[in-house]
């Protein structure tokens, strides 16, 4: 994956996640599109590229959220490392594998945002429900998103 192609997709997902998704999706069922991109990159890119791209994807997620900067970047990098370790053992083309990876990644990213809300003194009781709903929505949307991201990668080139 070329950095320019990844940057184009990241900017598109950033705009879509910050403008379109909040308008048309209810808060508890809102998928984390940055996690979708992280899972896709970790399943398809070379290991050296995947870790760096996923870290920058998490950083972009942090910059667009109201939480502390850095926690999401480290979480996305950790998710990439876990998927990179598991992708040699498990067929990542299967939809069930993608859903499981999405659920795990969504829970980890949500837990990082939840921890940021706890540290900032935010509304912790509301964050727990959003964490679970968002993780489920993220996990279930991964197989459909992977198809779209594959088509985008073919269109943009290798």
Query: Sheet bearing the most strands, described?
Result: none
User: How many structural domains can be distinguished in the coordinates?
Assistant: 1
Alpha carbon gap, first and last residue: 6 Å
Hey, roughly how much beta strand do the residues contain?
under 5%
Provide the succession of SSEs.
Answer: HHHHHH
Average predicted confidence as pLDDT:
80
Shape: globular
Model regions low in confidence, pLDDT < 50 over at least 5 residues: none
Judged by helices, strands and strand pairing, the structural class is mainly alpha
Number of strands: 0
Report a brief summary of the structure:
The chain is mainly alpha-helical and 158 residues long. The chain is built from six helices and no strands. The protein has one domain.
Task: Report on this structure.
This protein is mainly α and 158 residues long. The chain has one domain. 80% of the residues lie in helices and 0% in strands. It is built from six helices and no strands. The protein has helices at 3-24, 33-44, 47-64, 71-86, 95-120, 124-156. The protein is globular, with a radius of gyration of 15 Å.
Distinctive features:
mainly alpha
How would you summarize the topology of this molecule?
Elements: H1 3-24, H2 33-44, H3 47-64, H4 71-86, H5 95-120, H6 124-156
């Amino acid at each position: 994956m070329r950095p320019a192609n990844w940057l184009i997709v990241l900017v598109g997902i950033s705009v879509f996640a910050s403008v379109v998704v909040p308008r048309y999706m209810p808060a508890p069922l809102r998928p984390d599109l940055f996690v979708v991109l992280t899972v896709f990159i970790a399943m398809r890119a070379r290991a050296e590229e995947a870790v760096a791209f996923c870290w920058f994807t998490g950083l972009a997620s942090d910059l667009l959220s109201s939480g502390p900067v850095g926690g999401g970047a480290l979480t996305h990098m950790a998710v990439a490392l876990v998927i990179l370790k598991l992708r040699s053992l498990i067929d990542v083309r299967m939809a069930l594998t993608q859903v499981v990876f999405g659920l795990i990644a969504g829970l980890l990213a949500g837990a990082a945002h939840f921890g940021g809300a706890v540290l900032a003194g935010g509304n912790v009781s509301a964050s727990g429900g959003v964490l679970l709903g968002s993780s489920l929505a993220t996990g279930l949307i991964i197989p459909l998103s992977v198809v779209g991201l594959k088509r985008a990668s073919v269109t943009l080139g290798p």
